[in-house]
Amino acid sequence: MPDRRRSLINFNARDGFLIQSLLIADQFENDEDLYETPIVIQVHGVLGNFLARGTPRLLPPALLERGYSSFVINTRMAFLGQIMGEGIFDDAIYDIEASIDYLTRVGYRYIFILGYSLGANIVAYYASERFDTNVKGLILEGCAYSLPDSQQKRLKKLNSIPSYEEVYKRAKKILKPDPYHTNNDQIFVIYRAWGPSFNPLDAELFTYRTWWFMRGPEAHNAKTCDLIKNIKVPVLFIQGSNDDIVEEWESKELARKVYESGNEDVTLRYINNAKHDCMENPEETIDTIVQWIANVGKRPLSVSKATS
After folding, report:
1. In order of start, what are the domains of the chain with their CATH numbers?
2. What would the pLDDT profile of 5-32 be if each residue is shown by its tens digit?
3. pTM, whole model, 2 decimals?
């Protein structure tokens, strides 16, 4: 293996997409000791791990201090893939799949996946579709109840231009007859998407195709509330107590759906004095994650325990 402190690694997803990643691992006397320790795959939000602040940037070194490795990946959603056209929500699970395959081939056996913001919804979708014996649990930070529903509600509240319904109407016309395979895609701007002004900070950009699969009414795989019942591994939900993007009830309702589906190994923690980025309170966030991973690691995956 290359230097175990920080190693840049590139590999391809099944459809050929190039995944750029950073492996951050501690020094061990032999490979077996390294592979016996937990490693956390980190899946970013909109910006990508190498551009974002907070969790994507601060969590890996903090976990390293506690003896846990991190595998920081840039999925096709990175670098504003929703604007460049390659950020198709449904396809992003291929990037997680390839990352797990890579770590498994190397020898890691105690893999956890952390999704931050948009990444949490992608991780939830992946875990609802796949079961990997080496994946021991999920950490979902700031996970929206439903990406389409949350945007529709937000745009209506802010009286966006165009409205959610207008975007849907245009998207159907431009992308017909097949939104996935069409070559007729366009970039568009939603004004007053995040605030009441026409300031660029309050705008949101997509292509019609990326919007269709991430935010549109027919983006069924981005409706986490409908598919999260299929997740069978332990799940930790963390959310800032002052989250200004995801409402407080959303994590609570998702956790309830997981529990009621028969997966009782679900934990919900609100991080005090943090907004959407839980690493605004790094001590409490790290303690929560490390303690949860340690507890999951003490029991077989087939054993379920109710946690509160």
Report:
1. 7-145+223-296 (3.40.50.1820), 148-219 (no CATH)
2. 788 999 999 999 999 999 998 877 777 8
3. 0.92
